[in-house]
């Protein structure tokens, strides 16, 4: 227990110094959320369904950025600096580092999600008509899947600049083709087809179902299946991050 506490404390200290991660998890989603909320609030002033889709959608963005930038990018940075290589021959157990990284990712998700909820309620006067238990369950699955995405990224990319480039390429489709900011049904047919391959689309829809109390319906089965597949791939590939002899 003491070992996991020490590793988690170290990971959280790294998080406090991670300018890129802090920006993409706590600043960028909040600014986008407030901007789009103000932009469309006059059109949806009395439309509760709008907030039921928009708030969980932006929380989905937080889940993606936390998994990619807080977990995945930091793992790439640590490996590039030779942190994992220096751990070779030490008694440090890989599972402890894995657990500490997951806890750090979940901590970022919780804080970022609370931030979105506060902005929505206090800044946009959005009603928080949420099914708490179902939404938390949907968040847990979606957050786990995107933390797994972070491990996938860390296992595939050896250099920070490569991972950052992929992150920037992925960010805009995730924002605008997932239903997080613009409803899928409002997209042109060509972009709807592209959105099928956007992982965040499935997380956003699952979160929206959880928010409105429709998590345990047939419409959630496909979303949950995709997220479970992503989680499984992340677990399998993520093990490669912790091979101490990698440079």
UniProtKB/TrEMBL annotation:
It is found in: Cell membrane; Membrane. GO terms for cellular component: ATP-binding cassette (ABC) transporter complex. Residues 20-245 form the ABC transmembrane type-2 domain. Keywords: Cell membrane, Membrane, Transmembrane, Transmembrane helix, Transport. One of its GO terms (molecular function) is ABC-type transporter activity. It is a multi-pass membrane protein. This is Transport permease protein. It comes from Paenibacillus cellulosilyticus. The lineage of its organism: Bacteria, Bacillati, Bacillota, Bacilli, Bacillales.
